[in-house]
Structure prediction request, 390 residues.
Amino acid sequence: MAEAERCLQAVRSFPFVALRKDGRGAVQVNLPAPAWVSSRDSSYQPGQPRGIYRGIGERRKGRVMAPVNLKEAKARLKIPDLWGFLNLPGDCSENPCHSPFYERTSKPSFSVSEGGDLFNDFRTGEKGDAVTFLQLVIGISQKEACRKFLELAGERASSPLPVIPRAAMPPQARELPVLPTMRSGTPEEHETLAKLRCVHVEAVKMADSVGLLRFGNWKGQAAWFVREPGGRVAQARQLNGKLWEGINAKAQTLPGCWANWPIGAGFGEYQTICFVEGGPDLLAAFHFIILEGRAAEIAPVAMLGAGQKIHPHALHLFAGKRVRIYAHGDAPGREAARRWKEQLESVGCLVDAVDCGGYRMQDGRTSNDLNDLTQIHPDDAGEITDLLPE
Prediction:
């Protein structure tokens, strides 16, 4: 009873998912309906998104969309329509205008054709039609972009497209950082990192295969990096687990990086997100996702530090998604979870959180983060059976 009461006290102050159990079963927590759920939607139940627009390409519940082929879809849905739907900064009717793909530069370099069918970014050489535009601005595959474009065109046939909130573009330019050479890991490096972080080697391989994990050298040491594939941010750790000289820390965000850009935010096709703090927890998220056989359903995303706020230009990438935050079991970690929850809810996410602190580990220590839970004591493993979001 004392343990159950402690959990109840925790969830009264913040809507953490209560995983611990007493003799009568799990502590149940009923969360209030998020602000973005319509008050007219009487079918809504706590923890279940109902009757809402969940994100790009997701149909509204109960709506039958008009069938379209790709040619017809392109005739219905133009680049300016997508620009407004995504609430991208600037005005694409101005030619040239600023690119929606990158931070604002001093000179506009982006143009949209008169009919709204084609775009051209003279600065980067990227160009294409409305489907390619959707693919680049959301950061998804061409196949996924085609599917979502067809769904959006069908949605447009019966109603205007909804607008996803997006922060205004700052006036100052910001270039991408210059990063060291990184590469995919060797089988030996995969095994070394898996043992170091106590995760299944398949978790390391998957993180590598999707581009969030790389290997190389930093400050003359063999290192592993978690990184954003677009090159905005990367963080280095030594492959031997030691501290970096000069900063007395195991992790170093590389100079010039956008430290508040979430790693993994570009995988737009996933509607369910495990939102974690730091590189080790990113690997742990892959670990648990693989163990439960849900790699096709859930994507992990990592922030590189509890002191960071989610970059305002990354928020729209989470619009309408189901997100579970895995908070570190200390004051900064819990405060970060509150901050991220508030930001994510501002773009229509359904958010809850798990406090990863306070579990008994195999070596007798008490857990503090998600990576620690890969080493939970066998007698307590039943306490984290609902670790992943539904």
Notes: The chain has nine helices and 14 strands. The first helix runs from residue 2 to 13.
